[in-house]
Specification:
Residues 4-231 form the ABC transporter domain. Helices cover 34% and strands 27% of the residues. It has 307 residues and is an alpha/beta fold. Strand 4 (57-62) and strand 5 form a beta hairpin. The structure holds adenosine-5'-triphosphate (ATP).
Length: 307
């Protein structure tokens, strides 16, 4: 049985389609990522799966329970960390945790082993109000609160948005440890680089799923030759490269542009001479292996099939 089964789920807000005919299966024990930009429909799908929103169409089950018919039973079985700050800012760290435990009819002591490793980092601040914690600590507390009733399936909606790079890495390390204990986890993120931390990912855009696979299989879908290119005038460089006859796509990735070319015949020498002809200086070009972000960018810009 799938841990999460989503069949042809759709949801609109008035005329605005937020999720359009999505089907996905998440296996027990998977750390599964929903990757997509703002507005892709991730939060809407999460709310449907944790029984906070009714779908317009389709069917979904979590841990074998129907998200509409069995919503009461299901609420005991899922842990949910919403995207926005979900804690009580005027309650202390410990009071927040005790509150969430009580709501689910349990105690901190009963399930402490599950959160121990994460909570031990918060314990020195247990009397501090949640509103006064740093972003990374708030996120750890919210995770503890989502775990305190020992859920079967964990839903984390953009847990790392607005959190610094070190805390992001720590958070993913924690998720992997929880996952190693067998906890099925669905996590959403707008950060494409986090995809590689998941067992499988679904890439979402404008309410639809563009690709579902392991991170390495998604990366393997990128078949065009790829180059990293840099020159003195980045703005003019991107402009000129996008107009070049050999260019398939060209995007800024940190200090370099990533240039995908149409055929394997195009070499870095040809690109270099084109750029010299266009008066570029300090040119650097080298072939690179595509990463998952390159594949996602390519998927996003491909024309989508119409219904
Ligand atoms: N309550 C609402 N009323 C009207 N439109 C909404 C509502 N909530 C979301 N939408 C719209 O539905 C679409 C999907 O939004 P959703 O929040 O599910 O996406 P998301 O991927 O989670 O992005 P974000 O990170 O911005 O929340 C967007 O176009 C959004 O503007």
């Amino acid at each position: 049985m799938d841990a999460i089964s989503i069949e042809n789920i759709s949801k609109s807000y008035g005329d605005i389609p937020a999720v359009s005919d999505i089907s996905l299966s998440i296996r027990p024990g998977e750390l599964f990522g929903l990757i997509g930009p703002d507005g892709a429909g991730k939060t809407t799908l999460f709310k449907i799966l944790v029984t906070l929103l009714l779908p317009d169409q389709g069917r979904a089950t979590v841990a074998g329970y129907d998200v509409v018919k069995d919503y009461k039973a299901l609420r005991q079985l899922v842990g949910y960390m919403p995207g926005r700050f979900s804690l009580y800012p005027d309650l202390s760290v410990q009071e927040n945790l005790a509150f969430f435990a009580t709501v689910f009819g349990t105690t901190i002591r009963e399930n402490y082993p599950l959160i121990q490793e994460i909570y031990s980092q918060l314990e020195p601040f247990k009397d501090r109000r949640a509103g006064q914690l740093s972003g990374g600590m708030k996120q750890k507390l919210a995770l503890c609160c989502a775990l305190i009733h020992k859920p079967e399936v964990l839903f984390l909606d953009e847990p790392t948005t607005g959190v610094d790079a070190v805390s992001r890495k720590e958070f993913w390390d924690m998720l992997r440890k929880l996952n190693e204990r067998g906890l099925t986890t669905l996590v959403s993120t707008p950060y494409m680089d986090e995809a590689s931390r998941c067992d499988r990912v679904a890439f979402m855009q404008t309410g639809t799923v563009l690709a579902v696979d392991t991170p390495s299989a998604i990366t393997n879908r990128f078949t065009k030759p790829l180059f990293a290119v840099r020159a003195a005038d980045t703005y003019q460089l991107i402009h000129d490269l996008r107009l070049a006859p050999f260019t398939e796509s060209c995007y800024a990735f940190g200090e370099f542009l990533h240039l995908a070319v149409k055929t394997a015949v195009v070499s870095d020498r040809q690109i270099g001479s084109y750029l010299l002809d266009h008066n570029h200086r300090n040119i650097e070009i080298h072939p690179i292996q595509p990463g998952i972000e390159d594949t996602f960018m390519a998927l996003m810009t491909q024309p989508q099939p119409t219904a």
